[in-house]
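ok, trying the design again with the full structure, not the truncated one.
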């Protein structure tokens, strides 16, 4: 498609396509499937297949590439969290599976460090689970976890952010040791931990019973994710899924978490690409494009642009832009708002508490880094 025609399908609906300088965010569409993934998905649409079989075969292929016992394709990483929470509560009991989200009579509490409460822990609660904090806002100890475990504890949850490790949180190693000493499974949200490749499945290999990954970060469709884990855990997740609902005729909570056959195949192809691509070239390109924005913004009085020094996870490098309001007369929010008012709109954001705008390459087509840099520079002419 030519550059002049990009976004026309949205314009036909009366909607306005944008330039996405924020990165991989759900509200802007999440991902751009690679050409290879799109081609595979198109081929997969040519025929029908029993989805119980396809889930099994696709999961086995991913598990083999990741070096973990088992895997399952889900409707995003959030779906994997919901299904995993249901699985640790209801297990193999079909009566309990059909009872959820009512947890009466079953262990319905999942422990989470108070320091690790985060936006997406809500996905665990969607199963009917109750989240119970342990530790304090400032620190978590081994004793905090031991003391928090009770008769209603179904699992312990851990939020993994390799890019910004928390020295005052209880480590995953200690979490696994203590939880397993009490015969409790450990669930790890590792949605963005896809690079270095050793992180892909790392936490299951460490002993966690489950970790989730957002497949959108690897060039699959935004509505797909992965559950990796022990064979027992993935089998229980499969019973909670939409496939279990329809194939086994057991009315679990996973019926709305549908994944189509094209998406399952797309995930397998995306993982295969991710495991075999030249990541040095990928990172070099992203770093160069980030530096091009810095180059464009250099020398503007009251504006600083610096490289984000990170190669870990799903969104490496990028640019932090800071604005001295007393010099420029513009606040960060002014910059965000004015960029959205352009044609086409450029979407950026300043998170609460941040003194910078983070620009990322993930959602930018080749050359759009130049457009973004020039549009920002033009605000200060």
């Amino acid at each position: 498609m030519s550059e002049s025609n990009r976004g026309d399908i949205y314009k036909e609906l009366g909607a306005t396509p944008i330039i996405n300088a924020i990165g991989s965010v759900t509200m802007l569409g999440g991902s751009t499937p690679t050409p290879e993934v799109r081609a595979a998905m198109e081929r997969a649409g040519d025929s029908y297949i029993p989805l119980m079989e396809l889930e099994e075969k696709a999961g086995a292929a991913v598990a083999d590439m990741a070096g973990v016992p088992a895997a399952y394709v889900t409707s995003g990483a959030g779906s994997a969290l919901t299904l995993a929470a249901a699985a640790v509560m209801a297990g193999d009991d079909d009566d309990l599976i059909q009872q959820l989200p009512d947890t009466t009579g079953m262990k319905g509490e999942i422990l989470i460090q108070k320091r690790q409460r985060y936006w997406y822990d809500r996905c665990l609660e969607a199963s009917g689970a109750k989240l119970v904090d342990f530790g304090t806002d400032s620190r978590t100890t081994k004793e905090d976890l031991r003391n928090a475990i009770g008769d209603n504890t179904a699992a312990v949850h851990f939020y993994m952010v390799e890019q910004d490790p928390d020295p005052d949180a209880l480590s995953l190693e200690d979490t696994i040791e203590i939880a397993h000493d009490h015969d409790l499974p450990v669930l790890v949200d590792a949605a963005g931990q896809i690079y270095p490749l050793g992180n892909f499945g790392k936490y299951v290999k460490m002993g966690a019973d489950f970790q989730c990954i957002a497949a959108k970060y690897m060039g699959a469709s935004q509505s797909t994710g992965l559950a990796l884990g022990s064979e027992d855990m993935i089998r229980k997740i499969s019973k909670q899924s939409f496939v279990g609902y329809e194939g086994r005729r057991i009315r679990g909570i996973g019926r709305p978490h549908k994944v189509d056959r094209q998406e399952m195949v797309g995930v397998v192809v995306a993982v295969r690409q991710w495991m075999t691509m030249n990541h040095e070239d990928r990172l070099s390109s992203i770093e160069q494009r980030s530096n091009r924005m810095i180059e464009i913004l250099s020398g503007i009085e009251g504006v600083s642009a610096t490289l984000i020094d990170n190669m870990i996870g799903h969104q490496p490098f990028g640019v932090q832009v800071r604005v001295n309001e007393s010099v420029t007369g513009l606040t960060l929010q002014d910059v965000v708002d004015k960029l959205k008012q352009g044609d086409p709109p450029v979407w950026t954001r300043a998170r609460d508490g941040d003194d910078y705008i983070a620009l990322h390459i993930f959602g930018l087509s080749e050359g759009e880094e130049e457009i973004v840099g020039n549009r920002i520079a033009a605000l200060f002419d």
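Keeping the full-length input from now on. Residues 3-30+278-378 form a domain with the Aspartate Aminotransferase, domain 1 fold (CATH 3.90.1150.180).
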